[in-house]
Amino acid sequence: MHIWVDADAVPKVIKEVLIKASMRTGLALTFVANQPVATPSVPHIRSLQVEKGFDIADNEIVRRAEPNDLVITSDIPLAAEVLEKGAHALSPRGERFTANTIGARLNMRDFMDTMRASGVPQHGGPPPLNLQDRQEFANQLDRLLAKAVK
Predict the structure, then answer these.
(1) Quick one: pLDDT band at residue 101, thresholds 50, 70, 90?
(2) Is the pLDDT of residue 109 over 90?
(3) Mean pLDDT, rounded, for 96-110
(4) Which of 28, 42, 52, 139 could form a Cys-Cys staple with 34, CB 3.0–4.6 A?
(5) Is pLDDT above 70 for 116?
């Protein structure tokens, strides 16, 4: 299993959880972003900087992801694409995307895009990451990694 991170917007605390998990398990971890991402000097943890542009990092992750890899993202279309390739997808809030749930998430995303495009006022985005979100992420990550290292 290789862990791929859509790192342009990943919260720092989630980055730290991922680094600790990679150090503990020895699994490869790559942060993909259009800006430099600082990583520890460990051979299996690295940063891959891609060009700036719409979906460049997402496309790179899709290109590289393989079955049973893990992708950390809050981008619903990216999660859908890696699921189609047989990879796992997990949001920084600990929501595990699956073949059974991704269709509904894509529909809701498209609906919200339509609402925004039609001029319906939107109020704020998701709330800031809290301790419960971080714990849920760590728990889901541990479950996925436990299966991978067996």
Answers:
(1) confident
(2) no
(3) 73
(4) 52
(5) no
Token pair listed for 83: 């699921």
What is the residue type of 82? V
How many Å apart are CA 150 and CA 32, to the nearest integer?
26
Bridge partners, residue 2, by sequence? 28
Query: Which is higher by pLDDT, 119 or 4?
Result: 4
Q: Virtual CA dihedral for 38, 12, 107, 68, nearest 10 degrees? A: 60
pTM: 0.86
Strands (E) in the chain, as ranges, are 2-6, 28-33, 45-49, 70-72, 88-90, 96-97
Among the listed residues 63, 105, 102, the one whose alpha carbon sits nearest the alpha carbon of residue 83: 102
Handedness of CA 100, 104, 105, 107 (dihedral sign): positive
Neighbours of 17 (CB within 10 A): 19
Strands 28-33 and 2-6: parallel
Q: How far is CA 90 from CA 14, 32, 43, 57, 145, in A?
A: 12, 15, 24, 16, 12
What distance in Å separates the CA atoms of residue 70 and residue 79, rounded to the nearest whole number?
10
